[in-house]
Amino acid sequence: MLKRIVLLIVCFRAFDAFPGPTVPSTMEFAGISLVINESARRLIQEDVDALTRSQTYFLKKVEKAAIYFPIIERAFAEENTPEDFKYLIIQESAMIADAVSVSN
Hints:
Elements: H1 2-12, E1 26-29, E2 32-35, H2 38-53, H3 55-78, H4 86-93
Antiparallel strand pairs: 1-2
Helix pairs in contact: 1-2, 1-4
């Protein structure tokens, strides 16, 4: 799960680095300093490369994020929730408004 979170953060923080954002060896997530070892960094980089390979697909995700993130950020600010958790929404629902979990 952490691998997916790092993947999404790297991709969505790198709007202007298209194509090919690079996974860093260190980063911050929700106020926690993460150190990503080289083996994990390479695996995450493979996923980043796959996610950004199709510019059309990636830009659709970016467009959805531009719509949903301000709403999510306001709600998180009201609840004192670290803003970085907004990236989980991408993983959990792909920002599909009427998404339903497999467990219903």
